[in-house]
Specification:
Blueprint (H helix, E strand, L loop, with lengths): L4 E3 L7 E3 L5 H49 L5 E6 L13 E3 L2 E2 L1 E4 L12 E5 L16 E6 L3 E2 L2 E2 L5 E6 L4 E12 L6 E7 L6 E6 L7 E6 L12 E8 L7 E13 L7 H36 L2
Antiparallel strand pairs: 1-2, 3-5, 3-17, 4-6, 6-11, 7-8, 8-17, 9-10, 11-16, 12-15, 12-17, 13-14, 13-16
Helix pairs in contact: 1-2
Amino acid sequence: MPGPLVFDAQTHGRIVNNHGSRTDRASVEHRRKLKMTARLETNLGKLRKKTIMKTLLKTVLVMVASVLAAVQPARATLIAAWDFNGIAAAPNTPATFTATVGSGLMDVSAFNPTTSGNERTKFAGTATVNAFAGGESTAGTALALLGGTSGAGGYDANGKSVIISASLSGYQGLVLSYATQGTSTGFTSQDWSYSNDGIIYTLFSSVTSITSSFTTETVDFSSITALNGDDSIFLKLTLSGATGASGNNRFDNFQLNAIAVPAAVPEVSTWFAGVGLSLGMIGTLVRNWRQHKSSEACQKQAGEF
């Protein structure tokens, strides 16, 4: 005969046979384990989702930082500079000067260096106006260009030019600057031209406000895209307006500055489209993963009944 029926608290009040039948109890225990497993999988799913979102956020932030860094204004690089420190006076003033810093050449051979009626010599310079790293730390000397001998057409040095050559390979946005001063009978116009071949020059800018003490003059060639990246560019300084043999312009601390050509940066619209596509793909993966886990849970539950 079956034994007496007893109350079992583990089956939530269900009546079981005390002869050892535990079918209902085992079923309840199994369902409890399923619930615990489902809860654990849900928590793991949330954790995976958070991990995916954190990784995505980090990726997006890195991409944004990269784009912002790429579009920041680049700092100029000193391509070539001249300080004329320690140069000799006429008649021994050099006809050419290699750059004090960087790479470049300045040719002043058109100006006569003779003692009588000389057109190039040295005078006192400046250590502070338009100074550059690696240049003179004391006032030193400056290049002086003079009116020269008077002739039928005026003073001989009028219309003569200084030629500067340098390379802009890998660079763009050229800016020239220099310290200059002049005397009352010195040159009144400093005309700047540029060339890609050293033969054909294009007039670009003129400096006419030449003061009696050193000031910085800047000639911004950055709008001349033909110079960008050229490994052999030429700048010509033509002087005119001198009315005295000893009338002069002094020059010191010439600088050529340019910025490095930046690496190619994707269009902003293209970049954001890529980010949007990535977000969409990740969203699809998350949805597919959820559907997969839901299907697995249903299959498990169905297999128990």
